[in-house]
Amino acid sequence: MANTTTTKNPNENLLINDIRKKVTFSIVEAYKNIRTNTIALMTKKDAKVLAISSPNASEGKSTTALNVAITVSQLEKKVLIIDADAHRPSLHKKLKIENDLGILNLIVDDSNLADAIHSHNNNLDVITCGTNTSKPSELLNSEKFDELLEKLKEKYDYIIIDTPPINPVSDALVIAQKVDAIILVVRAASTTHEAFRKALKSLGVLELKVDGVIINGADPRPKGYYKSKYSYYRYGKTYY
Ligand SMILES: Nc1ncnc2c1ncn2[C@@H]1O[C@H](COP(=O)(O)OP(=O)(O)O)[C@@H](O)[C@H]1O
Ligand SMILES: [Mg+2]
C-alpha cells in the first residue's frame, strides 16, 4: 500500500490508497465530496458512530472506510476507525500495523484499551480487529461491546466501523443495530441489484435504514469528459 499523492499538500499524503500508485486529484475530490456528505448526514442525525458495510466481500468497504476516516480527520475532527470484520480483517494490513490486540480482545477485557489504540495522525486513531476471532458475532452482540463503544464515544467526534459484508454473515447486522448511521458501499460492475436488495431487506427486517450509498469504482463523468473511476456518493436516498 502506498501513501502516495500527486499534490504537494501534506494533508493529502494521509490519503490511503492501496490500489493505485498515484492518488489522483479526482480521487481526492471524490473523497472530499463523500466527506462533506458524511458530515452533513452525521450532523443532521446528531450521530457519532457510523458503520460502513456492503452486500458482499471485496466491494471496497475497508478502502472506503479508511479513506473517509482520513479525510474527515483532516478537518480537525477526532476520528476513530475500528476494524470489526473478523472474517477478513484488513485495516492492519492496509496500515501496516500490529493486529495482536484489537476490538475483539477489548470486548473481553478493555483494561489495556490504551495499548490497543494506534495513532495514524493527530486526529485519527485506529483499533484493529484483534486475534480473538472464535465467536465474533457473540462478542459484537454483547453488552460489553456497547459499554466499550460508549466509553470510546466520549473521546471521539466520530467513530467509523469497518464491518463485514451483510449477506454472507450475521455480524454486520449485529453491528448495524448498535450504530447511529449506516452507509453501504456497492461496487460498480460487480454488486448486483439482487445482492443490494437482499442487504436492504435484511436491514429492513430489523427496521434499519441505509443512510447513504457509495458507489465504488463508478465513473460519474460523461465519457470523454475526464476519467475518474472512483467513488461516487448518493446521500439520503436508497438506490435500486
Ligand atoms: N475503486 C477501486 N478500484 C480498484 N480496486 C479497488 C477499488 N476499491 C477497492 N479496491 C481493491 O479491492 C480489494 C477489496 O477492497 P476492500 O476495501 O478491502 O473490500 P472489502 O472491505 O469490501 O472486502 C482491495 O484489494 C482493494 O484495494
Ligand atoms: Mg474489508
Write the layout of secondary structure elements.
Elements: H1 25-44, E1 49-53, H2 61-73, E2 79-83, H3 91-95, H4 103-108, H5 113-116, E3 118-119, E4 124-127, H6 136-140, H7 143-153, E5 158-162, H8 171-176, E6 181-187, H9 193-205, E7 212-218, E8 230-235
Parallel strand pairs: 1-5, 1-6, 2-4, 2-5, 6-7
Antiparallel strand pairs: 3-4, 7-8
Helix pairs in contact: 1-2
Bound molecules: adenosine-5'-diphosphate and magnesium ion.
How does this model look, in words?
It is a single chain. This protein has 240 residues and is an alpha/beta fold. It has one domain: 3-Layer(aba) Sandwich (Rossmann fold), CATH 3.40.50. It has helices spanning 25-44, 61-73, 91-95, 103-108, 113-116, 136-140, 143-153, 171-176, 193-205, and strands spanning 49-53, 79-83, 118-119, 124-127, 158-162, 181-187, 212-218, 230-235. It has an eight-stranded mixed sheet. Strand 3 (118-119) and strand 4 form a beta hairpin. The structure holds adenosine-5'-diphosphate and magnesium ion. Adenosine-5'-diphosphate binds next to helix 2 and strand 7.
What's the short version?
This protein has helices at 25-44, 61-73, 91-95, 103-108, 113-116, 136-140, 143-153, 171-176, 193-205, and strands at 49-53, 79-83, 118-119, 124-127, 158-162, 181-187, 212-218, 230-235. With 240 residues, the protein is of the alpha/beta class.
Quickly count the domains: 1
* CATH level-four homologous superfamily name: P-loop containing nucleotide triphosphate hydrolases
Rg of Cα set: 17 Å
- Would you list the SSEs in sequence order as H and E? HEHEHHHEEHHEHEHEE
Main sheet: strand order: 3-4-2-5-1-6-7-8
Low-pLDDT segments: 1-14, 224-230, 232-240
CATH topology: Rossmann fold
Shape: globular
Q: Distance between the terminal alpha carbons, to the nearest Å?
A: 33 Å
**Computed structural class:** alpha/beta
The helix fraction, in percent, is: 25-40%
